[in-house]
């Protein structure tokens, strides 16, 4: 394969170590969206002996992760088949009394034990229990059915932008957790941006972007994307390059074609903005990025077919160019069609 993602084992382990030094508690590493584009299988292979939990978004991701680890897996989105999760020892989110009744009915019918993590909606307004009345109903229902919660959690929406709102969420979370039966030994966990820095009373922190090298000054980017030149074209002044005549040569040019495109997660918004490194020199993309390739100006670069191209090694460089965040740059790579290599 011409295009490859390289993962730095040392940087990933370093980031986890730094996070745990700060949080001083258990860690749930989020590996949803193919580990933020890094590769779920690859990330699990590096961290399997280092973390307590892995977090995913849906049942399909949970089942895929279970093929590579025996550690606890939590599905934080909605599940399609709770029985399948229970049979594969996969924990899952609980959002309502309605869900609790369905889950317990399935569990009792099949003589299975559900590992439920109750989601509290303290202000994110995405999933979960919002009122103490509903919370009490769920707790009382589980007590009657001789069931318990494996976990209780919430998600902070604005840790880096709104302290007052975050404080409100923290206060609500404390009110809920204090109502838990003490003998359940329910694990308390939180997530959402820089939660490890917020002095939040929890047993475990869910970390995503930071473990992959973004979000604070203590961590190092884990991922590097490389490809190679597969063709070189001579373009005359006035000729157009790429779909929709996306670039017009203002002089005679030499153009290199790189076999990586938006089908691999390279945002089309980077067209005519992306800068890549070829033989230690920077080259700018010209023309609209295609599904499978893009072209770059190498008029002033001594290069040939087969030469290595570093697409990027820091998602923070690309995020402003597409008016987005590192999250989007990285998770776009979840559909990357090349090889992932652990260094």
Describe this structure in words.
- By secondary structure, the protein is of the alpha/beta class.
- The chain folds into 2 domains: 8-212, Alanine racemase (TIM Barrel, Alpha-Beta Barrel); 223-342, Beta Barrel (Lyase, Ornithine Decarboxylase, Chain A, domain 1), CATH 2.40.37.10.
- Helix content is 27%, strand content 24%.
- It is built from 10 helices and 19 strands.
- α6 (97-110) runs parallel beside α7.
- The longest helix has 15 residues, at 9-23.
- The radius of gyration is 24 Å and the shape is elongated.
- The model has no long low-confidence stretch (mean pLDDT 94).
- Mind telling me the C-alpha Rg? 24 Å
Going by CATH, the architecture of the largest domain would be: Alpha-Beta Barrel
Sheet with most strands: 8 strands, parallel, barrel
CATH superfamily of the largest domain: Alanine racemase
Report the strand count.
19
How many individual domains?
2
Strands of the widest sheet, in order across it, are: 2-3-4-5-6-7-8-9
- Quick check: average pLDDT? 94
Q: Can you count the helices?
A: 10
Query: Can you tell me the residue ranges where pLDDT is under 50 for at least 5 consecutive residues?
Result: none
Principal-axes geometry comes out as elongated
- The CATH topology of the largest domain is given as TIM Barrel
What is the percentage of strand-forming residues?
15-25%
Distance between the termini: 17 Å
The topology string of helices and strands comes to EHEHHEHEHEHEHEHEEEEEEEEEEEHHE
- Under CATH at level 1, the class of the largest domain stands as Alpha Beta
Q: What structural class do helix, strand and pairing data support?
A: alpha/beta
Fraction in helix: 25-40%
